[in-house]
Amino acid sequence: MINFDSVRRREPVRASFTNLWDIDDSSYFLASLRLRMPAPIRLRELIRTIRTARTQAEEREMIQKECAAIRSSFREEDNTYRCRNVAKLLYMHMLGYPAHFGQLECLKLIASQKFTDKRIGYLGAMLLLDERQDVHLLMTNCIKNDLNHSTQYVQGLALCTLGCMGSSEMCRDLAGEVEKLLKTSNSYLRKKAALCAVHVIRKVPELMEMFLPATKNLLSEKNHGVLHTSVVLLTEMCERSPDMLAHFRKLVPQLVRILKNLIMSGYSPEHDVSGISDPFLQVRILRLLRILGKSDDDSSEAMNDILAQVATNTETSKNVGNAILYETVLTIMDIKSESGLRVLAINILGRFLLNNDKNIRYVALTSLLKTVQTDHNAVQRHRSTIVDCLKDLDVSIKRRAMELSFALVNGNNIRGMMKELLYFLDSCDPEFKADCASGVFLAAEKYAPSKRWHIDTIMRVLTTAGSYVRDDSVPNLIQLITNSVEMHAYTVQRLYKALLDDISQQPLVQVASWCIGEYGDLLVSGQCEEEEPIQVTEDEVLDVLEGLLVSNLSTPVTRGYSLTAIMKLSTRFSSVNRIKKVVSIYGSSIDVELQQRAVEYNALFKKYDHMRPALLERMPIMEKSASNGPTEIVQTNGETEPSVVEPKHLPPVTQPVNQANDLLDLLGGNDVVPVIQNTMPTKPASAGGELLDLLGDLSLSGGPAPAPASSVPTSQPSFLMDGLSSQPLFNDIAAAAIPPMTAYNKNGLKIDFTFERANPNPNIAVITIHASNSTEADMTDFVFQAAVPKTFQLQLLSPSSNVVPALNQGTVTQVIRVLNPQKQQLRMRIKLTYTLKGSPVQDLAEVNNFPPQSWQ
Known about the structure:
856 residues; alpha+beta; Immunoglobulin-like; membrane
C-alpha cells in the first residue's frame, strides 16, 4: 500500500514508491492514482442531489461543481464513465445550464461500438448540435455506417438523429441510404425512414422525386405505424409540390378505404384509445384528404360519403372523438362538399359550443368565424348559442363570440343582435369596449332600420363607452345627424339630456356641443315631435356650455367644440351680450387653439358683424367623400346592398395655358373667352370678380355683347366669394324640380346634365355633368371645357376622374356653377377631348335646349 501521508511530503514518496515497486516511472504512478479515484456519481444521484437545493444559488453551486468534475473527466480521456458524464450533462442542459463543451464527447460516443454509448451519443447530438455548427458534419460518416448496421435499433438511432437535426448537406449525402431503408420489409425501420424522408424533403425539396417509387407501396402496409408515417410523408409531398398533389389524387379511394376500415373495425387493444380505433391515424388521413380534395370535384365526390360516416358515427363523449370530428369539419369546409354535408359540419360546431371544455368552445367559435361568410344561413341557426358565449368568463371565448356575433348581424336581426351586443358593451371589460363600440358603429351604419334607431344606438354607445370609441366616431355621428333633417329637434333634446347626466364621456360631449350650437333654437322652442319636449331657457343652455369650458373633465378639443357652439348661438339666441363676454374672456386663454378661436370670434363681433349671421348659418347636408364614385352591388352577410366603389387615385387633370386659345375657336370669333378648370382662386375677387374678366366679351349670338357693368355693379363681389358676404353661397342645396337633359351623345360618349338650385341665391344654377361611355374601351385623358356668354359667370370644378369606364360601368362627374343675374336664357358651348384606343378625339357642341326652370 502507498503511504498517502508521505505523498504530501513529496520526498519520502520516491523512497516509498521505490521500495514498493522499484519503479521510478511517474506516469505509471499517476495511472494508478486514477484507478483508485472515486467513480463519478450516477445520474439518478445527481437528480436527487439537485432537487434538495433550497435556493437557485445553491442549485447553481451544485451544477458548477459537477460540471468541473465532468470537465476534468473529459480532459483525462476517461472512456469508462464518458457515457454517464454525457447523460448528466444532458440533464443539466435540460435545466437550462450551458453544456456545449460536451459536443465532441457525443461524437466519441457515437463512434463507439456499444449500443448504450451510441444511444446517449445520438441523444446528445440531437440536443446539443444543430446545423449552424460545423461540428455536426463530423458525424456524417458515422451515421452512414450506422444506417447500414446489422442491428435495426442502431439503424433506428441513426434515422432518428438524421430526421431531427440533419442539415441540407447531410440530407443530400444520406438520402440514398434513407430511400433504401424505405423499401425494406422491416416495419420498424420503414416507419422511421418515412419520418426521416419528411425531414430530407423539407431540407432539400428537389430530392422529393427520389422517394416517389417507394412511397406508392407504403399505403398497402398493414402496420399502423408505417401507415401513419406514410400519410405524413404524402401530406408533406402534396403540400410542397402541385405535381405531386395531382399525382397522389388517384390514391383517394385507397385512403377512403383505410379510413372506412378504421371506423368499422372492432376492438383492437393495441390501437384503441377511449373506444376509438387509432384516432391519430384517422386525423392524419382526414388532413391528407382535405389537401387532396381542395378545388377538385372528383376527389371531393369520392370522399363525401366517408366524411358523412365519420361525422355521424364518431363518439363525442370523449376528447378523442371531438378531435376527429374537428378534423372532419375542417375537411368538409375546405373541399367541394355537398351543401347538406356542410350543414352537418356546422351543426357539429354548434354542439361543440355546448361542451364544458373551454378549448373545444374556443375552437368551435374560431371555425364558425371562418365559415360564416360562405355558410351564413347555417351559422345563423346557432345564433342564440353564440350570443350566450358572450357571458362566458373566459376572455378568449368572449372575444371570439363578439367577433362572430358582429359577423352574424344583418338587416333581419339587427335589432335583436344590437340589443345583446349593447348589453355586452355595458358589462364587458375595458379591453373589449373599443372593439365592441367600433363593431356597433359599423353594423348600425350598414343595417340601421331607421334614422331614429341609428341615432339612438350611437348615442347609447357614446353614453356607455364614449371614452373608448374611435377618433372618427364624432365626425361620423355629426354627419349622420346633419343628414337626418327630420330628427334634428329629437336629437338635440336627447343629447342635451345626456349632457346634463354625464360630461365625462368626451366624444358624447363633443357631439352634444356641436348639435346644441347648430340646433339650439329647436331645443329652446320645444319643437320635438318624437317625444315630449322639455322646457329649456337660453340661459340654461349657455350655463351648460360654459360649464364645459371650465370643467376639468373637458379636453382642449371639447372646449373648442363648446366655444364654437356658444358662438353659433349668437345668431340663434337673443343673449348676444352674454356670449360676447364669454368669447372675449378666452381671447387670453393659455390654450393656443382656444385663444385663436376666441380672437377670431371677437373679430367677427367687432369688424364683421354684418357677416356673422351668414357665416354661422346651419351646416348644409354633408356628402360622403366617395359619393361621386361608381357604385356596384355587393353581397354582405347574405343580403344585397349598394356599395360605393372607392375611386382610384388619379393624377390631377392639368390643362396647359395655351388651351385657352383653343376655346377661342368655339364660335369662330374673338369675343369668346373660355373657362379653364379652377379649384382655388389665387387672388381675392376684385370689382366685378376675376371670372367676369376671364369670360371677357363672350356672346353666343355673335353680335355685340351687352356691357356687364349695368347688371353687375363693381361693388358686388364675385359669386365665388359669396360665402363671405351677408348671404352664404350654399346654405342648403335643395333639389328643385328641374328635369335632366342630354347635352351630348355621339361616338359612344354621352353627357347628361342634372340641375340644382342654390339657396338662398336663386341666381346660381348648379349643373352636374355625368359622362358615360358605351364603347368597349375606356376613354382616357378625358377633359370637359365650357364657355358661356359674358352676361353669365361660370365656374368649372375638378372632375371626379379623367377616365370614362367602358360599357357604362361608371360615370365621370363634374360640377358647373353658373351665375345668371339677368335671368337670361342659358346657352353654352362645350369642348370634349379624350383618347380612345390610343387615338386622340376632339369634338365641339353647342347646348341651347336648357330647361326653362334652370335659368328662370
